[in-house]
Write a structure and sequence with these properties.
Deoxyribonuclease I, Chain A; alpha+beta; globular; six-stranded mixed sheet; about 260 residues; 7 helices; single chain
Length: about 260
């Protein structure tokens, strides 16, 4: 089973760039998870809603238009799809889709960015904890695969200039600790599990200062799988040459 995750930073903008749908269909993925779609389904044409063999599912924010949003494109209909975390506080920004599949729960998440101010950082940390509790409850029934933009680089190896960003949201100790907590509780960072400590492996680059050209990036997009699935992990990769966004796609293959 092949899975793709991609923060498109605006689905209408990304899909309007030459080659987007060719890349999308050529990926051959069984599931494609997109983050930061910034669009409601009614704003999209049929080419975007139903590309080739895929059916789509969306979660869009209720508090602000043109913001956030996630989508899942599936070749086979999931057993069920639900949007958002439980609780009104977390269910307004279009940040999560949960697709229940035969072999595992699939979670597509766009975690909050905490750089705006302390209040927003607090919201981000609260979202992390609410998400962890939700994922743990799902795990009681079957394994969990989580993908998306986590808005945090876990280790110094996961960004180009760790010393420069040590006091910046996205690399703060408490944010990094959330990823450490996931791993300690049996959530496997699939890219590191299968590829080891490869350097200069990033998934996001600022548009400023030629960061993409210089590869001054961050690895903030992940696939995690609970340890029950570890023997089934076949391949995990990053696609830095795909440039429809300031992020790039990442992929995971499982032998189920």
């Amino acid at each position: 089973m092949k899975l793709i995750s991609f923060n498109v930073n605006g689905l209408r903008a990304a899909s309007g760039k030459p080659g987007f749908f060719e890349w999308f269909l050529a990926s051959g993925a069984d599931l494609v998870a997109l983050q930061e779609t910034k669009a409601r389904p009614e704003q999209l044409g049929e080419e975007i809603l139903s590309p080739g063999p895929y059916r789509s599912y969306f979660s869009s924010p209720t508090v602000k238009k043109g913001y956030s949003g996630v989508a899942i494109f599936a070749k086979e209909k999931p057993l069920g799809v639900t949007a958002e975390l439980p609780g009104d506080k977390w269910a307004q920004e279009g940040r999560l889709l949960h697709a229940e599949l035969k072999d595992f729960h699939f979670l597509n998440v766009y975690f909050p960015n905490g750089q705006k101010d302390d209040e927003r950082l607090d919201f981000k940390m609260g979202y992390y904890e609410a998400f962890f509790e939700f994922a743990q409850k799902l795990r009681a029934s079957k394994p969990v695969v989580v993908c998306g933009d986590f808005n945090v680089a876990h280790r110094e190896i996961d960004l180009a200039q760790p010393e420069y960003y040590s006091e910046t949201s996205g690399f703060l100790p408490q944010e990094r600790e959330f990823v450490t907590k996931l791993i300690a509780n049996g959530y496997v960072d699939t890219f590191r599990h299968l590829n080891g400590d490869l350097t200069e492996q990033y998934t996001w680059w600022s548009y400023r200062g030629g960061d993409k050209r210089k590869n001054n990036g961050w690895r903030i997009d992940y696939f995690f799988a609970t340890s029950e699935l570890a023997p089934k992990l076949a391949k995990a990769w990053i696609e830095p040459k795909i440039r429809f966004s300031d992020h790039c796609p990442i992929g995971l293959e499982l032998n189920l």
